[in-house]
Amino acid sequence: MKQRAVRNQFAIFIVLLNALFVAAACGGATDSGPESEATEWDDEFSEANESSQVSQTDEPPADVETDESEAVAADQDSAPASSNPMAFLSQSDTRALWVWSESPGAEAIIENTGGAQDELLDFLAAPHGDASRAINRIFFEARQYSNVDRFAKVRAASYDPLTDPSKQESLRAFLKRTKSQGVAVEYLDGQAIWVASDANAEAPKQLCRDIVAFNKGTDDTAERFDGIHLDIEPHTVREGPYGGQWWENRLPGGYNAEWTERWKDILNSCRATIDAYTAETGHRIVLASDLGTDYAYYNKPIYEFLNRSGGPLDYLGIMNYFDNRPNRDGDPSYFYGDSEGEEITGGVIENLDSWDRLPVMFGVETGPESIAQDWQSFWQEGRGAMYQTIDTLMSDYNAGNMIGVAIHHYGPRSYVGLKQ
After folding, report:
1. What is the value of pTM for the model shown?
2. From CA 81, how far away is CA 78, in angstroms rounded?
3. What is the model's pLDDT at position 88?
């Protein structure tokens, strides 16, 4: 019996030894590229990202059956990166583009009026004929609005394919066609005065519910939005009935207390809406928001609310609008920031150091001076200077939580019309 036990132990030892050799061989086969390198930050972020998908109440709605959907969500998490809609959050190769309903408008793009959809998709595949600059994610404003009195009242949609049944199929077809080209689509919307009153704040909450309801209207995930992308920017409200209020009744280290609380409430509400949708359908979509490059420095309440485990956002868009001219210290402004006053703030390095609990995507501006000041935009410098800056970002800052670049924006007086 003793000899048999020894033989059995020896056999187990041989099996374990073989298993170790197999595991080592597999590891060697998959560790050939930088994206597969494990880091302490990757582990920490993975846990933080998972927690952001849980409802703010930590419980799904009572009427949602979760067993089957949780299994589907688990399958998505274990799927290859190409089929996992959340995989881009741990990579650094996103090349995104804001597509506002301007020129052309959302209706023309969705209905392909005058070939507007064809032109957009051609441009995404090869901006200015260069396929190496292909776009793989867009933030798309699918509703069409008038911007008249946008600082005075919440905009009403003149074209609404989210809720108008007669327009929904065209939007689904557009989404499916765009995704077949390898381009993810987040719904884009935003208005600065959403946070100015309780009544105004209901608009973005309902928007998130409308997007989720639209997604649930089809079983084909290719016909659904991949996320919700909000652009609120209350600091731009300098006229109209709410003009200047952002700078009144300020929180310590921040701005208007009531506006800040509504902003938080909007993001929490949209997070809860998305989490309930995921629990019901098993389909995961992201919630993202844009902030100015100096928010981590000047707005501590918003910074502390967002930069934490279990926060409402899946990733943050930093509007890092510098044309990379040297700042007063002689450093390239896109990476080291610049100053309008006493302090040099913003830039890639400061934001990566500050936003250490969230994936970060960095924006570049391409609009003329009617949209952005000369030092903020590459409109004057052209594509060559912008691409050189983007290439440095993507090659030198591609570790940790930097997930890519987003270009503002699609239009004849922006990226489409940007000179060489």
Report:
1. 0.82
2. 9
3. 98
